[in-house]
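In this section we walk through a basic example: taking a raw amino acid sequence and producing a predicted 3D structure, encoded as discrete structure tokens. The instruction is simple. Fold the sequence below.
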Amino acid sequence: MYAIRADHAFDGTRFLSDGATVIIDGEVIVGVEPARCELPDGVDVAVHSGTVLPGLIDCHTHLIADATFGGLERTPALSDDQLDAVIMESLRAHAAAGVTTVRDLGDRGYRTVAFREHPGLPRVVAAGPPLTTPSGHCHFLGGEVDGDVVRAVADHHDHGVEVIKIMASGGFATPESDQLGAQFSVADLTAIVEAGHAAGLPVVAHAHSLVGARNAVAAGVDGIEHFTCLTDTGPQIDDRFLEQVAAAGIAVDLTMGNDRAWHSALTPATLPPPMAKLMRLGGFDSFDAFYAVRLDLLSDLRRHGIRVVAGVDSGMGPIKPHGSVWRTVGEMTGAGFPVTEALATVTSGAADACGLAGTTGRLAVGCSADLLVIDHDLSETLDGLGRPRQVVIRGTRLV
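The resulting token sequence is shown next.
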């Protein structure tokens, strides 16, 4: 048994006025007391002047992608041992940045399932290969479905996945796919959702196109990833559609958290042709201009009461390195979210979206001892959120 004592604390939903002493026994939190509480003799105590909070959760990662350009697309050429090595390095990068749980939304050969609770590494909620249409987005990961979509869900369930990922539109990692169109009919999407729910699995949809997002809402998915809502005239998202998303209770992950130092290198001349074309259609002369629209959308989501969760699409190039989800917190506060709501999207809210409510994402008795300590008072500044003083994963102290 040991304890971590900090002058400031965020418990997953609110700041605790008296800080906190988090008492850990094995892999579990057994006590959350004020910072100045008395402890039994012999309990090892680490004392900090900063903030203790639950470990961060990245709701959208690709652990088999090494955060280089084209990393995901190269994975079919890698052996299982090579894929596992990339997964290990990806998880270590997450852990170093205070991420204690990730939701992997696209691997090959179900390789991430074996890393669900690897000692000393972040917990993995795995989707396996995403379900896609023949030659559709990320077909090279092995999730093509040509016919029985219900059987495809059953196959994933048999492999031990904890979430189903479906490609409701094309994507930029697959240039030949239709980024403005739809993959799967609404009927097939609905069948996938119903089969997933019958098996106890949530279903999230990749949707870059507006028609893909609309189809996903009609099918009753639990979450929408990207939510770019592209048309041939650029992103088109109106209040009525946002009201529908809110009424359906769908969680939205805009997959932000970019390392924006790379934005200046992303020009129409250097981007993949499909993305360059869409930037021209939308009238964006720089990637920063496109990203500004995404930041404005964050405000719109909050205004409509839509549940926002934080995922980066980490691994998809140097703009999205593993261990970047902390950046989304600053983006959300910049878009008008109170700091408590922004932090909840990467802790308790993310845990809920991953089916881990009561397991992680909160400083609470009975929850997994997943936490980090930051040098500063996070209620005053987010400085240092990506540079934790200490990280604990299921009771194991890493830093």
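Looking at the output, two observations stand out. Residues 2-54+360-397 form a domain with the Urease, subunit C; domain 1 fold (CATH 2.30.40.10). The chain has two domains: 2-54+360-397, 56-324. In the next section we compare this with other chains.
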